[in-house]
Design brief:
The longest helix has 14 residues, at 2-15. Strand 4 and strand 5 form a beta hairpin. 35% of the residues are buried. Strands 3-2-1-6-9-11-12 form a 7-stranded mixed beta sheet. It has a 3-stranded mixed beta sheet with strand order 8-7-10. It is an alpha/beta fold. The protein has one domain (2-177): NagB/RpiA/CoA transferase-like (Rossmann fold, 3-Layer(aba) Sandwich). It contains 5 helices and 12 strands.
Length: 182
């Protein structure tokens, strides 16, 4: 129940302000990280509504030839990433989320793969409140690479409730700073 309340409040808070400038600063900081520069593959959500913008990041990757894969939600709470070379390859799912075609290639992840993880709220320990489906936590449980969460400073909390199955990210990038999680 506490997570549901935080989820609702996070959506309201995020929708209440213009984060265009914050998104630009977050992108700039992300592009400068060693994790991004060294990654052999970027796994990244495609932002919708008031989520921290990833479309500019994806377009940048397409332009410089960095391989990109985006998620597709499947039955049983599973999520698979599929490679794309353009945002035009996406179609909007029944849930309003841009997704790749299921026939697009599935990449092989390695220790050099970077996953940009969405969240409504993040805390200073790297935990997040997502949309409640558990897709990312299931995926991240076996993910061998690095993880970064994108979050406006106003949505960074001291501590969030967590379950044993929740997975933290290794870094959080806000418009003001990069937090490395120990």
């Amino acid at each position: 129940m506490q997570k549901q309340t935080l989820r609702r409040l996070g959506k309201q808070k995020r929708a209440a302000f213009d984060h265009t400038d914050a998104d630009r600063k977050i992108l700039h900081l992300l592009l400068e990280t060693e994790e991004f520069r060294a990654c052999d593959l970027l796994l990244c959500y495609v932002s919708v509504a008031s989520e921290a913008d990833t479309r500019a990041l994806l377009v940048h990757c397409f332009a410089v030839g960095k391989p990109v894969a985006v998620p597709r939600c499947e039955g049983g709470g599973l999520m698979r990433f599929h490679e794309i070379r353009s945002l035009r390859e996406l179609t909007v799912s029944a849930f309003g989320i841009p997704e790749p075609d299921p026939s697009a290639p599935e990449p092989v992840c390695s220790a050099k793969t970077l996953c940009v993880v969405p969240g409504l709220l993040f805390d200073r320990a790297g935990y997040r409140i997502g949309y409640g489906g558990g897709y990312y936590d299931r995926f991240l449980a076996g993910f061998p690479g690095k993880t970064i969460g994108l979050c406006c400073e106003a949505l960074l909390c001291p501590c969030l409730p967590r379950e044993p199955f929740d997975c933290s990210v290794s870094k959080i990038i806000t418009e003001e700073r990069i937090l490395t999680i120990r």
